[in-house]
Amino acid sequence: MKNMQDLMEHTIQDLYSAENQILEALPQLISKAQSSQLRQAFEQHQRQTEKHVQRLEQVAKQLDIDPDGETCMAMQGLIEEAQDLLDQLDGDEITDAALIGAAQKVEHYEIASYGTARTLAQQAGQDKIADLLQQTLEEEKQTDEKLTEIATTKANQKAVKA
Ligand SMILES: [Fe+2]
Fold it and tell me: Is it the case that residue 110 has pLDDT exceeding 60?
């Protein structure tokens, strides 16, 4: 990697890998969710994630690169850690709280990466790409806020009672 363009391409490929890993992991999270509110939030995020993958494909096309080519090690680690945690859970009461915590780590990683990629695109004057990345960034932030809302209203209250 030599320049900002290379760095942006790397970031897009990294995100493409991350999003695809999330798509693979989400069915498990959906099946483990205890409350219908959390299950629905994950299902909605699954549909959004499919869109995020498509947007990254559009971005790659604009950049004239292959979106494949990187493995996002951070996402691998986050998902592994989530699976580890889920394996250790005993009892349904804390499951949603744990799922939300794991999902928010994923969201925060994505928010950081999309923010970086968006800024790199802006600085390179690639407004169309910056706009696509910004759209996804907004949706990741909304998901994060929604998870906080669910955590503070339902899941964690249940956990406290347990
Ligand atoms: Fe996403």
Answer: yes
Residue 100 to residue 156: CA distance in whole angstroms: 10
**Centre of ligand 1 from the C-alpha of residue 56, in Å:** 10
How many Å lie between the centroid of ligand 1 and the Cα of residue 110?
A: 7
| CA quadruple 141, 142, 143, 148: dihedral, nearest 10 | 90
pTM equals 0.91
The average pLDDT across 35-47 equals: 96
Find the 48 Cα to ligand 1 centroid distance in Å.
7
Q: Under the phi-then-psi rule, with left for phi > 0, alpha for psi from -120 to 50, and beta for the rest, what region is 34? A: alpha
The confidence score (pLDDT) of residue 162 equals 55
* 142 CA distance to ligand 1 middle (Å): 11
Q: How far is the CA of 61 from the centre of ligand 1 (A)?
A: 18
Buried b / exposed e over 29-59, threshold 16 CB at 10 Å, is bbebbbbeebbebbeebeebbeebbebbeeb
Q: At what angle do helices 4-32 and 36-63 cross, to 10 degrees?
A: 160
Please tell me the class of the 4-161 domain.
mainly alpha
What's the chain's average pLDDT? 93
Amino acid at 121: A
